[in-house]
Amino acid sequence: MTSAPKYCKFYTQVNLIFDANSDRNTIVTVTLTPPIFAQYLRLNPVTWHNRIALRMEMVGCSQAEQKYYDVSCVRCLTSYYCEGDGVMHSCARCDNATDTNDTCGRSPTEHSFGLQAQCSPCPAGWICSQGYAAPCVDFTYVDYCNDTYCPDSCAQCELGYACRGGQRYQCEPGSYSDGNLKFCEMCAPGTFQNESGQDGCLPCDPGKYSSKSKDRCDWCPTGMYAVGKSIDSCDWCPTGMYAVGKSIDSCDWCPTGMYAVGKSIDSCDWCPTGMYAVGKSIDSCDWCPTGMYALKELIQHTESTLGPVDILVNNAGIWVIRCMKNLHVEEWDQQVDVNIKGVLNCIGAVISGMCERKSGHIVNMSSQNGKKGRASRVHRVEVLR
């Protein structure tokens, strides 16, 4: 075999003997300075300790790689910074330190994403340690990291808060969160929340309503009402009904003799003179039947002069001179219009006063002629109290 050149340290032409270990647990590292280029490597053991044994690993690169690194710079690695002197320096720890708790006076919370000339403070919402930075996952956060302290882990988002990007945001009035949201949810229509940092919304009381993202419920406007809870709008009172004041969950019917037309009704109007309204859902008044208004004025004048009417006697007789079977419908209507309406008008004029006084008598007498003429008339009298 052709004799190979021997390695000489620093070109001193002095042969270099590499130190080795004397047990199986000790590792000895030998750095070739300057580096050598070779195709083959031959080892020449000089001495042995106890028994013959040899184990070694060669670490290096190809000549092409060596030439590249001799003339090219590479990216500074994560958790390091490079000032331009061709050397990587550690962030948040000592260079080449074996004790990870020793920072050599540097901030323990600084970090580097690499390709940096200086270390940077820990970003908001991140955990920094040993020069590395790790973001908090969704729905977690970190309170703060200063120059001397950073938590070991991110905290779970609490009720009434939304967490995103490792930061916590308190829900404002009109919104809420169960702790598993990136953004606070707005209160749904018909609900409200007037405090910050809450995990839910409250329903509106009857007679109130709210739209979306509300911190309060509003009273229904006059003439409108809201039934139940979670109401996002109020309804108009139906025709013939009205609503007054606040906390209205229903509308009231207009009293007899009054009416309500249209929307936004907080009261009913009295019927004009000569008109009347009876029952519910009244949006207009009807004209009083013929003679009814005059009869009411007569009764009022009588009561103002002589006192209240205690007994009313009505004669509702039907007087017909010929056979009833031969009467036409128009003739029957005429008989009823003259006799029966008079009875109803009289009763209507006095009944309210009797009901208020809780006393009074009404006597209705009804007679009907026979088949023809006076000879065969039949009488029937009814007394109503």
From TrEMBL:
Q: Which domain of life is it from?
A: Eukaryota
Tell me the InterPro entries matching this sequence: FA58C, Galactose-bd-like_sf, Growth_fac_rcpt_cys_sf, NAD(P)-bd_dom_sf, SDR_fam, Tyr-kin_ephrin_A/B_rcpt-like
Per its UniProt record, what Pfam families does this chain match? Answer: adh_short, Ephrin_rec_like
Q: F5/8 type C domain spans which residues?
A: 1-61
Q: Which Gene3D superfamilies match?
A: Galactose-binding domain-like, NAD(P)-binding Rossmann-like Domain, Tumor Necrosis Factor Receptor, subunit A, domain 2
Q: Which PANTHER family match?
A: INSULIN-LIKE GROWTH FACTOR BINDING PROTEIN,N-TERMINAL, KERATIN-ASSOCIATED PROTEIN 16-1-LIKE
- Name of this chain's protein: Proprotein convertase subtilisin/kexin type 5-like
